[in-house]
Amino acid sequence: MSIFIHLVIEYVWRRAADCPFRKPGIAGNEEEVHRVLTREMKLLITGICVSTVFVYLRSLYRVIEFANGSNGPIIHTQVLFNVFDGAMITFGMFALNFMHPGLLLKSTAADAGYELTEQPSQAVAT
């Protein structure tokens, strides 16, 4: 999970600074394209980051919960379980529902002029 968070931070930094991993002019990347962060892309990144933070907090709680084994005081406290386990996942899913990646990617793809899925090519009858 920490590796995923690191990669997301690097992606957001590179996308915001318009600093791609491969520079223009390298084989396979001849054209120079400046991709700005649109409103939809910002919402998408925000939704993913918010849900990731909630899941990460839940994971930290689970590590602390099981640090004392199955007889620790934290594992037997229902309120802590409800808040740090159930509520964190619920809030993470709400974040992804309000900032739904499918809807935001469709509008981002429409703005950029490319399709998310490849259309089957039409056979030309001769």
Automatic annotation (TrEMBL):
Quote the subcellular location field of this record. Answer: Membrane
Q: Does the keyword Cell wall biogenesis/degradation apply?
A: no
Spell out the GO cellular component terms annotated for this protein, sorted alphabetically and separated by semicolons: fungal-type vacuole; plasma membrane
Q: Which domain of life is it from?
A: Eukaryota
Q: Note the InterPro entries from the entry.
A: RTA1 (IPR007568)
Provide the primary localization: membrane
Coiled-coil intervals: none
UniProt keywords (A-Z) are:
Membrane, Transmembrane, Transmembrane helix
Matching Pfam families = RTA1
Q: How does it sit in the membrane?
A: Multi-pass membrane protein
Chain segments annotated as transmembrane: 43-61, 73-96
Protein known as = Uncharacterized protein
| Organism listed in the record | Trametes pubescens
